[in-house]
Amino acid sequence: NQEKYRQLFSNLSSNFLYNKVLYDENGEPEDFLIIEANIAFTKNFNIKKEDIEGKKASSVMPWINRDIYKCKEFLKAMLSENQHKKVDSIYIEELNAWYSFVIYSIKPGYFALIFDDITEKKNKDEMIIKLAYYDVLTGLPNRKNIMECISKEFDNGEKFSILFMDLDNFKEVNDKFGHRAGDYVLSSASERLKSLIDDNVVIGRLGGDEFLILKRHSNDIEEAKKLAQDIEDILSKPFTYYNSEISIGASIGISIYPDDGSDITKIISNADKAMYNIKREGGFGYSVYKR
């Protein structure tokens, strides 16, 4: 019964509000009256029970007014179905926090609202996703990420370019200055490369000093060649590591879909072959795959 529910929810560690729906002249839900708040709510929101109980929700939780239409529609659906509804996550800008909500329709015109701050969990989930799809050292998309981006392009049926890049002089950096210097150069080079990223350019790190670049909507080989030259230019300026200047470059191979391959393995393999062609000639430049 109603009292049983109230006693149960009042002792929850989650925030709990027991409410009465307020209707407009057309019989549509427009707000709700907070009848009871549990101890967890008063502690978490640093508010006294007497300052919230008996008040309209819109007056004590003003952020509701920003999405009042959505709130009304949600209430209407929940009340008409006479059941409980769950919202996994809502960001409340005024509180700078994410919340999950469960709403129980206890009896006609009344409902219980249970919600929890899930900001910490949300941040952890986002961190897990970031670790799964982004390279830790450079912040660029990792192998899994860039490969998925390329795979999706095959469904679009439009031309695109693949640039396979291997840094030049990087082994010498590690041998002369150590792996910390190598990591610094990789990280710094990636920061420069990020300036070239836009809606049509995705740059990912495959591992080591190898990178894969996707150029979407690349209808002209000249567009891919210009991007390759931009990369060469951006990496040509020396990197300063403590008191030492370190110079690197890049060997870049270019392949075009569908001309140079009809599947992801072939298109990348041919870009890789083009890269090795310029590598054999001394590097520090780009080469287009020759069919």
Key attributes of the depicted protein:
291 residues, 2 domains, Beta-Lactamase, 11 helices, Alpha-Beta Plaits, alpha+beta, 5-stranded mixed beta sheet, 12 strands, 5-stranded antiparallel beta sheet
| Level-2 CATH architecture of the largest domain | 2-Layer Sandwich
In CATH, what is the homologous superfamily of the largest domain? Reverse transcriptase/Diguanylate cyclase domain
Strand order of the largest sheet: 2-1-5-4-3
Oligomer: single chain
Q: Kindly report the CATH topology of the largest domain.
A: Alpha-Beta Plaits
- Which percent range describes the beta-strand content? 25-35%
Which class best fits the helix and strand makeup? alpha+beta
Top CATH class of the largest domain: Alpha Beta
Topology, number of strands: 12
